[in-house]
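SEVERITY: medium
COMPONENT: batch folding queue
REPORTER: lab tech (J.R.)

DESCRIPTION
The queue accepted two submissions in a row. Attaching both inputs and their returned structure tokens so the on-call engineer can compare them side by side.

ATTACHMENT 1
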Amino acid sequence: MTGEVPRPADRFDDVAEAAGRAFRLLPAAPQDLQPPRGTAAGSGTHRVTTNPDTVERDLIKLVLTLVELLRQLMERQALHRVDVGDLTEEQEERLGATLMILHERMVELCARYDLSMQDLNLDLGPLGTLLPPSE
């Protein structure tokens, strides 16, 4: 090893390449799908065509999806603690306000990147969707 620190441009190229590999695993919109060579357009195997111009938005979508998943898990845990009577009234109020603010920020971030909350719900094929249905 030479101990050489990679230049920022090299690191961005590495990140873009890694993001491209990651997004090839995500479900695609119908217009992004290309049939594999030698198969009919309606067959079951699909690949995503990545576009370097949308890498930032796609990465934001992935990050926001993970944050939304964690937010929903925290919300369910909070409801469980309220049901059990594990929290004081003041703690319940503070927790509720915090979760509402977090949800508002998620909606704002989605709007900034022209995403809807439903866009964050990845289709996992036979497993169903990543996030539970909105209530």
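ATTACHMENT 2
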Amino acid sequence: MKRDLKNKIKNEYLGRAYATFCGMLIIILTISIIYFIASKGMKLFILNNQSISEFLFSKVWDPEERKYGALIYILGSSAVSLGAVIISTPLAIALAIFINMISPKLGEKVMQPAMELFVGIPSVVYGWIGISVLVPIIKNYLGGVGFSLLAGILVLSVMILPTITSIATVILYIISGFVILLYSKNIR
């Protein structure tokens, strides 16, 4: 009896010490990464005498002349993100309605596991498929080089669709349960 209690206490302290060590290691690594990125990034503003407003609002990107303007990249990223959300959100809500209300059995057995599986696919895989499949299709049918806003929007739309669908499914499930609860209280 004493031996079991002694082992439990020993294991608990070891577990707590290990969890504390891992937590502190994560904090130290995070601070180190932030320091590294900030110190390398600050060189642009300190050594090149470039202002933050020039960096954020200039369109000129010329490393040979040490001019770095990020406006085009910021606007491009914003346009791709906004376009992907505009495309994915209605589709995700429609999928969530299908999973929860139209065909709950099919949704629970097939659609929900598929969505959870797609959430786990790394973004690098989506990007590789976009570059190797989508970009050549856009290049052949629409012209140009294929690397475009359309390609980015479509790849990001496919990438975020499962996440938005999973969130919308849970929200609809909670809302439907809440409505049923309110309706059952009003009947009495």
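NOTES FROM REPORTER
The chain has a mean pLDDT of 88.
No errors were logged for either attachment.
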